[in-house]
Amino acid sequence: MATFLLRRVLVALPVILGVFTVLFFALHAMPGDPVDTLIPRDIPSENREELIRNLGLDQPLYVQYFKTIEQLFTLQLKTFGTRRPVVEVIAEALPNTLILALASVAIAYVVGILLGIVQAVRQYSKLDTGITVVALVFYSMPGFWLALMLILAFALWWPVLPATGMHSPGWEFMPPAARRLDLLRHLVLPAATLSLASAAGVARYMRSSMLEVVRQDYVRTARAKGLRRSKVVFKHALRNALLPIVTLLGLELPALFSGAVLVETVFGWPGMGRQIVGAIFRQDFPVVLTNTFVFSSLVVLGSLLADLLYSVVDPRIRHG
Amino acid sequence: MESAGGAPGAVTPPQGAPRRGPLSGGARAAAAAVPGLGPLLRGEPGVAAVALIYLAAALSTTAVGGGRAIEAVADWAAWGAARLAGGTAIPEWSRVRLDSLVATLTLLALYAGLWTWAVRDSRRDPTAPPARDTEGRRIWRQFRRNPGAVGGLVLIGLLYLVTLLTPLLAPYLPEVQMDVVANKLKPPGSEGFPLGTDEFARDVLSRLMYGARISLSIGFIAASLSVGLGTVLGALAAWFGGWVDMAIMRFADMLLSFPRLVLLLFLLAAFDTRSMYLIVTILGVTGWMSVSRLVRAQILSLREQDFVQAARALGLPTGRILFVHLVPNSLAPVIVAASLITGHTLLLDAGLSFLGLGVSPPTPTWGGMISDGKDLLRQAWWIAVPPGLTIVVAALSFNLVGDGLRDALDPRLRT
Amino acid sequence: MSALPAAAPAPDLLEVQGLVKHFPIRRGLLMRVAGHVRAVDGVSFRVGAGETLGLVGESGCGKTTVGRTLLRLIDPTAGAALFEGRDLFTLPPAQMREARRALQIIFQDPYSSLNPRRTVAQTVGEALATHGIARGSELRDRVEKVIVQVGLQPLHMDRYPHEFSGGQRQRIGIARALALGPRFIVCDEAVSALDVSIQAQIINLLEELQAELGLSYLFIAHGLGVVRHISKRVAVMYLGRIVEEAETEELFRNPLHPYTRALLSAIPGGRRKGAARTRIVLPGDVPSPIHPPPGCHFHPRCAYARAECRAGPYPETVTLRGSSHRAACHFVTEDGGSPVLGDPPPG
């Protein structure tokens, strides 16, 4: 097992580094000059050159490449725009994205698993068909459009929830309990948007996984022994049906981040997704690079975790 | 769409159910004259509904755009005559658009297809034993038992029909701006603007229809590119193994290890103007990874099968073994994936347009329209809502078809 | 480039010398080679023109690997296979493609051995077309001829494999092998997956084809019963080596190796009158070919094993004087005796 994990990490490291390298050179190959986005074009050229020197953009590409890697690992990388350390900038955004991501993953899995169980238990009923259809509709819906529709419904036509941002104005002066409530109110729409599509996916997997398990002999045996249906479902079938869902969790991370990019943009949620979009448009290389580095590390970590969880939950799996 | 439950499929009658024989005399003539009547008379409402939907589509297009069709044909005929007469005068191309001619031909083909089918169908004997069973027929039989999947297929057909017929159907050209002061932000139902206008006084319905061409084409072509690329790369990785496998699959891992949307933003942000071809290419070359994994796994397991070993023993060339023996046998899951990928690509393309990195304006795309409407939600919800709905319908159709195919291709479900 | 002394005009169609195939096992963090599966460990035999050699052994003994290396479906680790004087293992690709026309294979599983998406005519004619041997109506004629030859009808040509029974599918497989006009065919357990009644039909068909076309077979099977009828000679394999080889009648009359005797006793029924021999049941399983037992590989399961069998070198192959009967057992002497094992069973 340890060997297996170690090998996975050893394979993953060059992949992450490869991503970083490709992105680095792609960024620099892109037309347009990051300096243009920082200062007006009519500024005197000696000031411009000074800025280029300051940003290190005058050096040969390979020097910049190794310097960037060095700075990345020593946490010395600074943004082009404000010259703040990138770590700081990301440290502000990362928790916000994690709040959103964790909330929606939690909702998605709870809702999705419950729906999947209901569907499997009542296979081929009207309820089953209905949930399948609704789930497929949400699965086929662009997240950002759903976001707009939710804003339209719950913030404009029936204004019960805030449309954008993470806090109300003046939240700094609220008592802690009110602050938390305020955050929660802001979280509802984005988390709902992100979780609906993925809940639909989870429900689909859960349903088929459950049906697969129910067909197995040991479940039939349990039923034949005269155990109650609900007991069979929850004690015998559920545990085994959850297995494939666990892996899904690790593999869904990239899709979740993709969704976060759009949802954060729509809701003005100050997370990494919105940050990276802004940074790409501003050509703020250090922010883009560090962000993708963090993203891909999280993705690799996610799939590792999925493997690990899988072998914990299923004692039959032992990686040699 | 088939009615639920009994599924009065023409090929496999439910056991024991009495079936009517072939149509006779007058009924047959009537069935040949009106597409859809035949199945209705034989008690197959599902088939009849599909035929009638397409008939209605053809008739309403004729009613709305018949004039334009005749005009287009006349203009092209005049131009052709002038050419023959040795005249070099170039006609007024803005009116004699190739588009309109294609739309007219599509409409004619639709009519021809409908009636060819009706005539053949009217002679069909539902009690006749089916012809020799082939793999394709078995899959189709399973597929048509699934009402959702058939519905999805019909919808996809209609959507792509609309993309071809748009020049005859759309009230305006998509970029046409009316008098902005008088006509901007008109609500749906306003005179002349069934779905209202946007802030530049452009007709939302027309933009929606022309947008369908761009968005659906992008979805379809990009997905085909992804699937083709994924199939070839997956096949090569599996067959050659070693460092080829290593290189291809690690590259796939790399592309998979960060959010695809970010990668796309990244690549697209480099271009000042983005044509449809650029978007298609970039979506295509970033979406092949899942297909290549699928194909690779399939081929790795097929490779040890004896029929492949036999092909090697016969000394067949590698390319032939790969693409005649291995790939066709691993396509079942790929077809399913292709359908699902098309739906997904549609959503992704919409997301790109929403972020302002899709096909450059003023070309209408569904995602772009949503983006246009996002800041006007309060004043003019009708700009952002309809394109979202059409995206849902299109993506849903592809997902339904994909699901139906998956079930139809899964041998465990077969009886 | 062959290691064969270039003398004697070879009467043999195929001569295999010291064939070895080791599959590496990779393990650990860096996927280092941690050991080898010794699937085939030095096998030599000859097959004469128009002859059949039966190759028999339990599953995992390497007999299938032998068959597949001959067709270069698997690359051998060492050894030579002289086919009409040329070493198959060192032929350049172009010449190997040529050689494949003379050298074909029939597989065990009639279901996985046919591409489900190709019609019979496509399957049978494909090689003819791609080798540029025939095309158009000539191709069709040749395919039809082969189809009829294996006992199918021309109307079967445009059908798909799923429309046939197991025995018919096996005939299609035979037709595919015959299409190129081979002189040598490896029958890799070609009848093992079939019902007994169908087995007989297929074996008869193979014999008829042999008589008609002068084919040579390497007939691989896991029991001696099947090969007796069709083979001129029989070789018995155990853990990657041939332990005994003789003319078929000689082998059945006078089995020298204890393993051969066990296999013989396992043939159901069919023994001659009154010879109610006790069935020899071998203890234990076939040992792992990764770590074959020292000494004679068979000793853990041999009732006669002594100290010399358990340690020391692998037994030399002894050929009986004045005969081509050979066996690899410490107890066998050139005089045909085997004092320890006692007399051969009454034949």
Describe the SSE topology.
The complex is a heterotrimer of chains A (320), B (415) and C (347).
Chain A: H1 2-29, H2 34-38, H3 45-55, H4 61-73, H5 86-121, H6 126-139, H7 143-157, H8 176-214, H9 217-224, H10 229-267, H11 272-282, H12 285-313
Helix pairs in contact in A: 1-12, 5-6, 5-8, 5-10, 5-12, 6-8, 7-8, 7-10, 8-10, 9-10, 10-11, 10-12, 11-12
Chain B: H1 25-33, H2 37-41, H3 45-84, H4 98-122, H5 135-144, H6 147-169, H7 180-183, H8 204-240, H9 242-256, H10 260-268, H11 276-285, H12 289-303, H13 306-313, H14 318-329, H15 331-354, H16 366-373, H17 381-409
Chain C: E1 12-27, E2 32-48, E3 52-56, H1 63-70, E4 78-83, E5 86-87, H2 93-100, E6 103-106, H3 120-130, H4 136-149, H5 166-178, E7 184-188, H6 196-213, E8 216-221, H7 224-230, E9 233-238, E10 241-247, H8 248-253, H9 258-265, H10 307-310, E11 317-319, E12 326-328
Parallel strand pairs in C: 3-8, 3-9, 6-7, 7-8
Antiparallel strand pairs in C: 1-2, 1-4, 4-5, 9-10, 10-12, 11-12
Count up the helices of chain B.
Answer: 17
Question: Which class of the largest domain in chain B in CATH terms?
Answer: Mainly Alpha
Q: In this structure, how is the largest beta sheet of chain B organized?
A: none
Helix-strand sequence of chain A: HHHHHHHHHHHH
Provide the low-confidence segments of chain A as ranges. Answer: none
Distance between the termini of chain B: 22 Å
- Residue share in β-strands of chain B: under 5%
How would you sum up the global shape of chain B? globular
SSE string of chain B, helices as H and strands as E: HHHHHHHHHHHHHHHHH
Q: Mean of residue pLDDT of chain B? A: 82
Q: Please tell me how large the radius of gyration of chain B is.
A: 25 Å
Largest sheet of chain A: none
Shape of chain A: globular
Which CATH architecture of the largest domain in chain A would you pick?
Orthogonal Bundle
Radius of gyration of chain A equals: 24 Å
DSSP strand count of chain A? 0
CATH superfamily of the largest domain in chain B: MetI-like
